[in-house]
Amino acid sequence: MVKAKPANERKVRKRAEREDRILKVAEQLFLAKGFANTTIDEIAAKADVSKGAVYLHYRTKDDIYFNIAEKALGTMRDMFRQAADREEIGLEKFRAIGYSFYEFTKKYPEYSNILYDTNSPKPGNILASEGRCKSLNEEIGRIMVMAIESGMKDGSVRPDVDPVAAAFIISSSLQGLLKAALSNPEFVRAIGLEEKYLVDFSIDLYGRSLLNGTCPQMNL
Q1: Angle at which helices 40-47 and 61-85 pack, to 10 degrees?
Q2: What is the mean predicted confidence (pLDDT) over 143-166?
Q3: The pTM is what?
Q4: Phi and psi of 145, rounded to 5°?
Q5: ∠36-41-42 over CA atoms, to 5°?
């Protein structure tokens, strides 16, 4: 019994290492070729495992995708929380989250590209990994909504704002802006703009759209 424990620990560690290797290889292939153009055979070959070994750890290619997306969304969720916690005033919390989204996109471009791949799996798979991604997306949404609600309570955000609609519209708009600016920096420079300026301008614009002009704490 005493000898069995180290053997079991080695087995668990090797399994975890193989799972991680498969995910890293899949991530590289998804980035290079896109999700739709990557096959399980290619993932297995590059990870130096059998096709059966891939299926031992992940039920489908979609399952692999959602496991990568889970890591990405978990990182985003943590960055949003930290950004919001650094500020006291609700509107500033929301603005900080906006900058955190920019930081996430710059720091983890591979995650951003995989998350927003238009050919990524569509919702509806009966996979635990997809369920975890859905929960993380909901958490991320709640962080943004709570920042706006906090601003409505402290007076920094207009009282007539719909927090859910505002969070959805602004986050979608910022996502589109970042994707356009980061994927085509030459065009942005050609029209006389800079990436950081666009981010500053847009977050300021979003902030002013939420701003309660009667709040003495705010000076945008």
Answers
A1: 70
A2: 96
A3: 0.85
A4: -65, -40
A5: 70
Domain span at 43: 1-58
pLDDT on residue 215: 56
CB 44 within 8 A of CB 23: no
What are 185-196's pLDDT values in tens digits? 888 889 898 989
204 neighbors 127 (Cβ within 8 angstroms): no
Does residue 31 belong to any structural domain of this protein? yes
**Total domains present in the chain:** 2
Three-state DSSP at 93 gives helix
Q: Can you give the pLDDT at residue 4? A: 55
Q: How many CB atoms lie within 10 A of CB 20?
A: 12
**89, part of any domain:** yes
Does one domain contain both 65 and 54? no
Q: What is the DSSP string of 98-165?
A: HHHHHHHHHH-HHHHHHHT-TTSPPS----HHHHHHHHHHHHHHHHHHHHHHHHHHHTSB-TT--HHH
User: Per residue in 102-138, is it b (16+ CB within 10 Å) or e — as a string?
Assistant: bebbeebeebbbbbebeebbeeebebebbebbeebee
pLDDT in tens, 67-112: 999 999 999 999 999 999 999 999 999 999 999 999 999 999 989 8
Residue 132 confidence (pLDDT) above 70: yes
- Would you say residue 126 lies in a domain? yes
CATH number for position 107: 1.10.357.10
User: 206 pairs with which residues across the strands?
Assistant: none
In a domain, residue 218? The reply is no
